[in-house]
Amino acid sequence: MKRVLVTGSSRGIGKAIALEFARKGFAVAIHYGGNEEAARETAAEAGRLGAATTVTLGADLAEPTAPARLLKEAAQRLGGLDILVNNAGITRDGLLIRMKDADWDAVIATNLSAVFGLTREAVKLMMKSRWGRVVNVSSIAGLMGNPGQANYAAAKAGLLGFTKSVAKEYAARGVTVNAVAPGFIESDMTAKLPEKVRQEYLKAIPAARFGRAAEVAKLVAFLASDDASYINGQTIVIDGGLYAH
Ligand code: NDP
Questions:
Q1: Is the predicted pLDDT of residue 245 greater than 80, yes or no?
Q2: How far is the CA of 40 from the centre of ligand 1 (A)?
């Protein structure tokens, strides 16, 4: 039975990922930022779906010492840690010339620096047990860029360089590190898009629809499995064909 921490699993894509691991009977740590109630609901659903155990942990990942603390607490409560999914993320969109320092800092702290802090602690545990999986949730914005998202795209592109580097450091110890880069997925994050923008994006997506969180969850679960043991340092795009290159 594997033990997994999914950051930002109170809702959205992270919730779907946590539930996918629950179906496999794993011990699942559900992490939230501010939504404790939602995290408890995710945990209850995970329990119904077959999770061996569930724990809920709150931490503001924008706070510098929180990531390492969260990882240690998750490992302690689960009795170890085999899989880390770095999913929590935010947007603070705006054109560059209007972007506030605080918007830049919050996005880099939450979407990139927190992943560094969490992964550093996770890998220490995984290399000892000679098996581990880290899956980082990036975005096609990190590959393509997106107007109004200089901060977000920089953080998500940063994740890809981080993924490739750490993948090369610990592969010989059975630890793989991969990234997924979703396109537009139905979630609270994309619900914020104005209808006109949404329609424009839909025109550009060959699948002619936004993706579902459950579809991303299946991909993450595969990368976290034994079946993906020789996939390392990769970025798997999941976007309905939008970023075909
Ligand atoms: P949501 O906005 O639906 O959920 C975000 C999650 O992250 C929540 O669980 C939230 O916790 C948590 N979170 C946010 N800020 C913090 C913080 N400071 N500290 C701790 N937790 C925090 O996002 P999505 O499900 O849409 O996105 C999940 C990931 O997928 C993100 O990394 C996002 O960038 C990426 N992604 C999303 C796409 C999409 O189309 N939706 C496309 C490509 C990538 P709480 O609610 O408890 O505050």
A1: no
A2: 17
